[in-house]
Amino acid sequence: MKRLLIIIFSLAPLFLSAQQVLTLEECYSLAEKNYPIAKQTALLEAKTNSEIKVLEKERLPKLDLNAQATYQSDVIEFPLQIPNSNIEPPNKDQYRATLDANQLIYNGGNISANAKLKTAELAAQQQQIAVNLYTLKSRINQNYFNVLLFQEQEKLLLSKMEQLEARLKETSVGVKYGAILPASEQLLKAEQLKLEQQLSQVNFDREKALKNLSLLIFQNLDNTTTLTNPEILVPVENESQRPELELFNLQEMQLETSKEVISKSNYPKLLGFAQAGYGNPGLNMLDNSFQDFYMVGLKLNWNIFDWGKIKEKKQAVDISKEIVSTEKKTFLLNNEIQQKEAESDINKYEVMLKKDEEIIGLREQVLQATTSQLQNGAITSSEYITELNNLYEAKIDQQLHEVQLALAKANYRIIKGSFK
């Protein structure tokens, strides 16, 4: 026996190290890190960088190689013969190959404005991902505290089992010596079987909640996993810090940046161009032979009248900003309602827990007296079981209220945006 105890104690650290312990904060972190949508943050940044590089390449010269061969039904001819000259009309079949280069010199900062808009769009899109990931916290809360509740209920049921086994041993001795009727022992055994059934149900429910939690945080959780009971402090700050508010601000900034792009879209564009070519005829239409040629110059393009399109586009953007503003106000109103509801829940469970303490204190005194009466044969096992159940129902209610209070506080912090 002594050797067996030594072996058990030597293996105990291995069992403890194999046990997985998780905190609520770790669950949040794992979900944000492993949830599929989290990968979009880096993907969106890579996409935007590529799009900005494409925009920046508009500053580089454009080279086009063109070639054509044509046959036309008529060509230019002089109506009069010029003395001492031999001018032949151009051939009806003509050939030309050119290399054209265009260099943007000025476009009113349109490229920079579009690159700035791409950056603003990226910030809004990445914040939207942050909002989506933040909503996971409420789902994690529900599953986390479900597991925690079943975990604590299991401890209470095991404690109840110990007391029941102690009374069963005492009753068995009384039955053996004829001091207690066998029905009392059978009643305790039936209650023991019922308790084993409850433990089995709690274990299945805990396993189910663990599986749901494991899917959210992408970790393999089993019955060896223990969740810590978090100490959650209710924040004192009044202003909400939800990521949705930052999203609204970024959306407004994005819309304001788009107005700058709209303004610059109608600025004049100045291009430098060059053309080098070889063909028949060349630039000299009177020389009916293959010749090389070139041309350089500047080109200005400016739409001086757009029928008020720029103005209408800006008005549309302003309307979109008003829509975002109304969405922000609606969110703040709903968020304030949720805060008030969460505060009410916190106050409710705190009051209930105070009563739970008083109830349990009284129930323990009653059970202590009932246990003494059972040991002295003054009452039956049925009466003892009734009081035992009353005590542990009160303890389970207390445990339920403690978990509900912690859940209400965690939800309140999420509603306030305190969990980042």
UniProtKB/TrEMBL annotation:
Signal peptide (residue range): 1-18
Main location: membrane
One Gene Ontology MF term: porin activity
Localization terms from the record: Cell outer membrane
Key words, A-Z: Cell outer membrane, Membrane, Signal, Transmembrane, Transmembrane beta strand, Transport
Source taxon at top rank: Bacteria
Keyword Membrane: yes
GO cellular component: cell outer membrane; efflux pump complex
Family of the protein in this entry: Belongs to the outer membrane factor (OMF) (TC 1.B.17) family.
Name this protein carries in UniProt: Transporter
Organism: Aequorivita soesokkakensis
